[in-house]
């Protein structure tokens, strides 16, 4: 077992690492910044739409999923870039698959928002 902090100290440390990760994503990832702005704008807009609380929650959850997937994609890209700058088929594939995951999450936003607003 890996030695380290336990209990509340571990939770506090983990929260600090998470904040560092969010700051790094904001500083280094233009897509994360753009999606953050869209998250805020679309969340505000959702409160002016004629939807139920559950529908609004699902709409906002779909936006948050994009943010989660973008963070994972950014982490994949950082690890691949750390390995080396030369092109490798597997590195390219990893980056492409991460990008595809973000695309699918964005498509889900369109389906969820469209489905709720059209019904």
Q: What report would you give on this structure?
A:
- The chain is mainly alpha-helical and 119 residues long.
- 84% of the residues lie in helices and 0% in strands.
- It has a single domain, classed as Orthogonal Bundle (Helix Hairpins).
- The chain starts with 6 loop residues before the first helix and ends with a helix.
Considering the chains and any ligands shown, give keywords for the structure.
119 residues; Helix Hairpins; DAGK; DAGK_sf; EC 2.7.1.107; ATP binding
**Count, helices:** 4
What helical percentage do the residues reach?
over 70%
Shape from CA axes?
globular
Number of strands: 0
The overall pLDDT, averaged over residues, is 96
Oligomeric state of the chains in view: single chain
Quick summary:
Its main location: membrane. It comes from Photobacterium leiognathi subsp. mandapamensis (Photobacterium mandapamensis). This protein has helices at residues 7-28, 30-46, 53-83, 89-118.
Write the layout of secondary structure elements.
Elements: H1 7-28, H2 30-46, H3 53-83, H4 89-118
InterPro entries: DAGK, DAGK_prok, DAGK_sf
Family: Belongs to the bacterial diacylglycerol kinase family.
Protein name: Diacylglycerol kinase
């Amino acid at each position: 077992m890996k030695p380290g902090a336990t209990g509340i100290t571990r939770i506090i440390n983990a929260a600090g690492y998470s904040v560092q990760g969010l700051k790094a994503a904001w500083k280094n990832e233009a897509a994360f910044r753009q999606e953050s702005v869209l998250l805020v704008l679309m969340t505000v807009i959702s409160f002016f739409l004629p939807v139920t609380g559950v529908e609004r929650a699902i709409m906002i959850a779909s936006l948050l999923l994009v943010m989660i997937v973008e963070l994972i994609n950014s982490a994949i890209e950082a690890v691949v870039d750390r390995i080396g700058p030369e092109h490798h088929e597997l590195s390219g594939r990893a980056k492409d698959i991460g990008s595809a995951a973000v695309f699918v999450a964005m498509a889900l936003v369109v389906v969820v928002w469209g489905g709720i607003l059209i019904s």
